[in-house]
Amino acid sequence: MRIDSSARGVYVIAPTPFLADGSVDVPSIDRMVDFYLECGATGITVMGQMGEAPKLDEQEAVEIASRVIRRSTVPVIVGVSAPGFAAMRSLSRTVMNAGAAGVMIAPPVQLRTDDQIVTYYRQAAEAIGADVPFVIQDYPLTFTVVMTPGVIRRIVNENGSCVMLKHEDWPGLEKISTLRGFEHDGSMRHISILCGNGGLFLDFEVERGADGAMTGYCFPEMLVDVVRLTAAGQRDAAHEIFNAHLPLVRYEQQAGIGLAVRKYVMMRRGILSSDAQRKPAVALSAQAKEEVEYLLSRIARVDKRAGLAPLGAATKA
Amino acid sequence: MRIDSSARGVYVIAPTPFLADGSVDVPSIDRMVDFYLECGATGITVMGQMGEAPKLDEQEAVEIASRVIRRSTVPVIVGVSAPGFAAMRSLSRTVMNAGAAGVMIAPPVQLRTDDQIVTYYRQAAEAIGADVPFVIQDYPLTFTVVMTPGVIRRIVNENGSCVMLKHEDWPGLEKISTLRGFEHDGSMRHISILCGNGGLFLDFEVERGADGAMTGYCFPEMLVDVVRLTAAGQRDAAHEIFNAHLPLVRYEQQAGIGLAVRKYVMMRRGILSSDAQRKPAVALSAQAKEEVEYLLSRIARVDKRAGLAPLGAATKA
Amino acid sequence: MRIDSSARGVYVIAPTPFLADGSVDVPSIDRMVDFYLECGATGITVMGQMGEAPKLDEQEAVEIASRVIRRSTVPVIVGVSAPGFAAMRSLSRTVMNAGAAGVMIAPPVQLRTDDQIVTYYRQAAEAIGADVPFVIQDYPLTFTVVMTPGVIRRIVNENGSCVMLKHEDWPGLEKISTLRGFEHDGSMRHISILCGNGGLFLDFEVERGADGAMTGYCFPEMLVDVVRLTAAGQRDAAHEIFNAHLPLVRYEQQAGIGLAVRKYVMMRRGILSSDAQRKPAVALSAQAKEEVEYLLSRIARVDKRAGLAPLGAATKA
Amino acid sequence: MRIDSSARGVYVIAPTPFLADGSVDVPSIDRMVDFYLECGATGITVMGQMGEAPKLDEQEAVEIASRVIRRSTVPVIVGVSAPGFAAMRSLSRTVMNAGAAGVMIAPPVQLRTDDQIVTYYRQAAEAIGADVPFVIQDYPLTFTVVMTPGVIRRIVNENGSCVMLKHEDWPGLEKISTLRGFEHDGSMRHISILCGNGGLFLDFEVERGADGAMTGYCFPEMLVDVVRLTAAGQRDAAHEIFNAHLPLVRYEQQAGIGLAVRKYVMMRRGILSSDAQRKPAVALSAQAKEEVEYLLSRIARVDKRAGLAPLGAATKA
Fold this sequence. Notes:
The structure is a homotetramer of 317-residue chains. By secondary structure, chain A is α/β, with parallel strands linked by helices.
């Protein structure tokens, strides 16, 4: 099961569950995968920016990815961004052998010119092997690397194994339209476009032609709803559910504490047994937790799935 | 009328109105000022990041600022960020003589260390003169300069003329709490904190102790409502009106096209006679306009002020 | 007298002379211009990065530029980089009317993609007017904007008024070869290439096809020698004189204190009456001055022009 | 044999020798280590910026480091910079067990504020273990992280295992003086300061109080000479030999091609059997090679050690 350019729906970015002592929380991994499948995820992505991958040693990373792959009935993409091509190749081979459906590659921060970016992806594609489908991660806010639509077209056209764009340029609506325009005018072959940024613009992104989302918002079922309702032409209904969640989507999008919010809600929903991050990590303040609870209570008025499990539910499950 | 550290409420960031041929649209300036006053603005800020200041020559900038100052019954702050202290001093003197209430200073992008930032503001304060109240603009996302709470405390304590923080760090909720904590523990004197980022976190920012907003969202009356309702302890009501606008607040926050959205809505509301920006500028695509119209129609269901003027109302007024 | 693409030789980057009290030192301006002409300069550039332009108000800048223009018998280029096109146009018009031979434009730090850079120069060229010859300043180390040879070719081919490249990419030897290759293969028209970086690679840059230097090393006569000797095919002699100065060239290239070194030597040579910079400025430590004196004493063994004027010579002249 | 704060002399940054097919060139490793020892190196550093570490997988890196450690009679420092603390800890433990004398840690590019930098080194020191001596790599030109002397003092005072600074701030002479001043005024304990930047300022750095060099200039014997002569008070002799090499030192300092120059000269001197870099790599153009040969021929007039081995000597040895 390998991803290709027809991928659609919601690929959930999975966090790595830890216990308070910093050890990997294996039961929560299984529960989380099951939860994503129940939500209607069409894929799962591990070792992304929000996966705390740099805090794992290589063996841990491979074990976690393998466990997710074995339990999942949908394709699993693994982030393999690395400071050099040797580590990238080695990790790619290992996870593909373990059953991954593809890999995701972010550009290193020092890239500046169009040619540098295109060259980097050519070398990366060669390093991992032409048989490994890969995803471009286009996230200038974090990586400071700016890819024009023309640069993405060059990467796609040069590398047959490039099948997907994780689109999180901001703003990015016109970029989606431009890329789809390239497909219509025949200058670029079709690729799957899944959107990140915590879903902050998902309502319009799918209207612009994106195939769905690749992000880890703590209510993935909302992302699934928006993709489904939009595909069904139910615009108002899609915006209705999206807007009900938008205050929390926005709150979760705060750099630095976003993952803490996400894990906290996933713990409150009974999916993770702990909201712990491995060190170094920023904890939520009491006031931040109160704000999240307030946001959850408001969502619950509209979306009955937001009724939370009693605290400690996960550990009892 | 000079600003001091007791400033509260909503200081609206004013755009500069242009006609389609790039000339300054003077009648729209007057109408805009009147509109802001009717909305309940407690201050106005001109020549900010969203004021297209770099596209004005110095004479134009001074004329526009002066016109706003003369017509306004609330304090007017003028952005005086400049590549050097000579231009900053010269512009500050001119606008203060014209009746400005204070000036706003952004840090130059090359500043990195704590000491560099503190030194810069010391030199800037000396350049403009100790009698000119100034606002620190803390906007790392755009300027790439990161000021810790401790650095802001040093600037405040060193410079008696520093009276306000335009807070648009992101995330920034804990920063507000930390700064207010400095005041409570006596290590920093009180300053006014007004929040930017288009209002994207205003709901919680005022709960955290901010004194209000300094931003230019196209419905300033919503900002006024949120500040007022929160001050009155009406939390649910504040979030209700905030959330109704949040999809558009977010849409307007898109870098690069945000000003186009803002001017478009202000034109649709009959305030500006044109949504033109002076060159170079990015125009809204047809699809973007449709998206804005859709967002406006949804707001109108909740906030009756969002009923739009017929197109062309401004020019007929 | 306007510059065109046939410009050659040494365009000296002139500092702005100040007295200790921060006022402009007019007699030193005249003496400096005369000195550059005696050195064999084929042009002079004012208001460059090393001209302390941001510390001048606009009127001062124009007066200084005008004074240099009137006294000089060689073309004078004026730096007009500005945060916006309005100020750039206004300053360009003023200095061209005062007799400037052309203007120099650096890219703003936020430019990233190839298209952003090309667009910026197109808009700048339009803003200043197609009749004003301009110089691209390509200095990634300071501006963080990286222009590939292909981007420079696009700018040159799009804008007939682009006549010169101030080349200070680092490393840049291959860039010169590539650009000259573009001329040979007919894909780019000829432009003048003058090199900066304080002259640190001038020995090989002229061998690679550069037309000379545009930099302000405190012994411009050495730059003139290297260009002349290389053009005459006297490679060893060119390197001999270059290498004798290289320890000081390198010392002067230290960011932040380079201008202090340059002014100190120009004062010691009797050209400037003071090495003062307008505030804010970094002064040379006693140890740094001793190091410069040591370097000067070593140069003097090889280059008899390095015999220094007695201290105070300038003020007595 | 572990490094401590009394380390002095020249720690040579070793490249990783490869054959033309990209495989590790083991015989050249041994020859290179022997050569460094003959040159008078007091230490060797592997897996630094110039060691092509990202192109090695972890097993290769450990094998190369171990081989150098076994053959060397002087302390060996290993670069362990990594995107996360898990990999940093794992690599540190492995190489320390293999006999490394300490590790070197560069700051990640996203660090901005003083506190962020201090916190990072505290966490890194904790991650590798308090028993592992470490070196701060202060190289703002490459990492964009700016550490003031005060920040370095905080790191040193907080972490007993911090024993050395690889100093390659630029400019950095005053920084050395300031840090030594901190030691004299008792506010910071003594650390070893070894200088990088290819040796471009080594002549004055050792006069300012640095303990020597940590860099990989292709004639390490010159670095040894400069440190020795300066320590012996023979200033003129130190500058004499330094200046003879300065044109090549400067040439080798060109970002991107510097390593190619270094390996080329080491091949020409019979140390490496090939100047190959593992992909991706930039090759020297024919003109660049000619320039290097010219510089070598000029050095040979002054420094008889620069007489080169006939091509192919290494492979025959």
